[in-house]
Amino acid sequence: MLWLKKQMLVVVLLLCTKVAFCKSYLIHTEQEFNNILQQIKPGDEIKIANGTYTPWSLIINTNGTSDQPITIKAETKRKVIFTGDAEQPVFKLTGSYTILRGIIFKNCNVLKADKHTGILVELNATNHCRLTECVFSENVARAQFMPIVVVSGQGEYNQVDHCTFSNNVDNQELQVRITKETCPLFTLIEKNVFKDKNKVSWKNFNGGECVQVGQDPILLGTIQSKTTVRENRFLRCNGEPEVISNKSSNNTYLKNYFEDCDGELVMRGGHDCIIDRNIIKGGNSGIRVNGTGHQIINNNISNVKTGIRLMYGMAKGKTEIGFYIAASDCLIKNNRIENVVTGIFIGDSKNADWTGKFDTTRYPSRVMQDVAPFNNTLAGNIFINTQTNVVNQ
Asked: Which residues lie across from 84 on neighbouring strands?
């Protein structure tokens, strides 16, 4: 017993020694921040002094460890506010095991100018980095298709959690960016709140997603990002028809809650995604599906027009190119659909003509949406107070 006590004392002393060597810095300006970056070691903490700041432009290449991450945070949570014009990323993390915590971004204008693009937070080629407990409120995108938070580059295991996105205007909230060269892997987006987003003012009312995983479903939709989006809340999100827009493969959408949203949870492109145990309550429609091999299971959908829509396409499978891929080989099982006009619509957008509506040089696709959904399995779905349970167009 005495030996065990001595061993425990040694462990405690070692832990205390580690903590003692960690430093805490209080900074007041962008220059002060840059001045200390080369000194930062695993376990260190950088506090931004309470106050209101115009957007900085920081590239933060700090590298912590799993047991001693580096933390960048407000001196007091949500007492640090960034506001004003942002033409470049305000915080661009490029390292590993770094946490950005407790900062407010309010009334920022994200701009495009001189080949620069304003982003409020970017995790670029980071590994095991985290954005948490931050607030993004009343920020405005001054050009179309501009996100305010981006996970990009060839990184892994990054996380955005416990953040609030509210009343933002004409923007995309959170983007996992996929290109021909790079795709972040195993991104986790969880326990965030997205709320009170009005319809965007852009052409075709496009470019107002809350979460977008991939941007090019036609040419890059087969790329596997293995992103997980779980336990987020989407309240009155009306930016555009897609609240969540999936445009890549092997992603998971789990236990998210949608209330009174005009848009849907959309498999716009990609394949082999899992859509499990989401709750969709009120608003327009529930889940829209293109692509192959998706599992739409155990969801609870109520008080919308249509619960689940399986769409026509211009092509089929994982190798053909089509602006839309017909829904095929999907499993639609154990969903509870209540108080809707149509429970499950198999074959929406039949024979839609997209002539002149997309670039057929960039996307060598047929323009007629005339390939019917096929090989989809419906099993164990429960319909309550629906005008029509299943429509097969």
From this structure: 108
